[in-house]
């Protein structure tokens, strides 16, 4: 998939996107039919155990992006612009874009639009594709009072709808809609020429994204309603670890065949 496919997939084919943070899982995704890969700032939570995405700074994001990029050959790669990277002015934002692109990203994702529309426009004009992100924008979790569904009241619905159109007009090639009611996601999707990619936004967006570790069932803790485990990863992995442990302890691993003579 490349940037041109996003437009052509609209109304023809659904887009599948997963997050990825490291080399070995990137190699597995490369073997799959997944369309595109996001190095999300959820790396702060999934890979580093922080309670929010706020601790993923640009050096963390660039490091993960470079590792993922080395594991991919054909997939379109999106790098997340970290907390405050577009609020610190154009120069800082461009430095961050440069680090992500030089790490191997093909585009960047930016949360929200209020207060940084000119930055988004400048990044698009510089030749770097930008993916928008509306609804539940985790970098604003403390302003939102928690990880809550957005767009439940008229004002909030109107704002998300207006912001989606604004992002399209600014030149974004796609928009992530996170945790919004499905009727709102459906209307926004119908009104845009660019594809929407949903997470907790119902079935009518142009694509779906999940955190890789959530879909593989290797994360523990809070389970949002939209989450589906496509593998029970915790039990599969624990079983393998226990298998290794028991073979070590009963001296069946390594066997003669697994030893140098
Ligand atoms: O960081 C992330 O994982 C994301 C997805 C949830 C869209 O932004």
Name its key features.
binds 3-methyl-2-oxobutanoic acid, TIM Barrel, eight-stranded parallel β-barrel, 261 residues, 15% strand
Report on the architecture of this protein.
This protein has 261 residues and is α/β, with parallel strands linked by helices. It folds into two domains: 3-230, Phosphoenolpyruvate-binding domains (TIM Barrel, Alpha-Beta Barrel), CATH 3.20.20; 233-261. The protein has eleven helices and eight strands. It has helices at 3-9, 23-30, 43-46, 58-71, 90-102, 117-125, 141-144, 154-170, 182-191, 212-215, 233-249, and strands at 15-19, 36-39, 76-80, 107-111, 130-135, 174-178, 196-199, 207-210. It has an eight-stranded parallel β-barrel with strand order 1-2-3-4-5-6-7-8, surrounded by six helices. Strand 6 (174-178), helix 9 (182-191) and strand 7 (196-199) form a beta-alpha-beta unit. Helix 8 (154-170) packs parallel to helix 9 (182-191). The longest helix has 17 residues, at 154-170. It is globular and about 70 Å long. The site of 3-methyl-2-oxobutanoic acid (KIV) has 11 residues, from strand 6. 3-methyl-2-oxobutanoic acid is lined by residues 19, 38, 40-42, 80, 176, 178, 199, 209, 211.
């Amino acid at each position: 998939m490349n940037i041109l496919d996003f437009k052509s997939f609209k109304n023809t084919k659904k887009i599948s996107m997963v997050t990825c943070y490291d080399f070995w899982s990137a190699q597995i995704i490369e073997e799959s039919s997944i369309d595109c890969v996001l190095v999300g700032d959820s790396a702060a939570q999934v890979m580093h155990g922080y309670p929010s995405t706020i601790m993923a700074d640009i050096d963390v994001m660039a490091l993960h992006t470079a590792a993922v990029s080395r594991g991919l050959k054909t997939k379109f790669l999106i790098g997340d612009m970290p907390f405050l990277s577009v609020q610190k002015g154009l120069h800082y934002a461009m430095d961050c874009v440069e680090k992500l692109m030089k790490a191997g990203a093909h585009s960047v994702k930016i949360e929200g639009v209020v207060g940084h529309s000119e930055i988004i426009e400048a990044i698009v004009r510089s030749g770097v594709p930008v993916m928008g992100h509306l609804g539940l924008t985790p970098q604003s979790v403390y302003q939102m009072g928690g990880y809550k569904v957005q767009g439940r009241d008229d004002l909030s619905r109107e704002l998300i709808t207006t912001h989606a159109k604004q992002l399209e007009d600014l030149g974004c090639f796609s928009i992530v809609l996170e945790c919004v009611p499905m009727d709102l996601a459906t209307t926004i999707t119908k009104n845009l020429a660019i594809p929407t990619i949903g997470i907790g936004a119902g079935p009518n967006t142009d694509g779906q994204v999940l955190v890789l570790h959530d879909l593989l069932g290797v994360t523990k803790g809070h389970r949002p309603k939209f989450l589906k485990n496509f593998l029970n990863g915790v039990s599969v992995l624990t079983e393998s670890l226990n298998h290794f442990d028991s073979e070590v302890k009963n001296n069946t691993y390594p066997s003669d065949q697994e030893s140098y003579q």
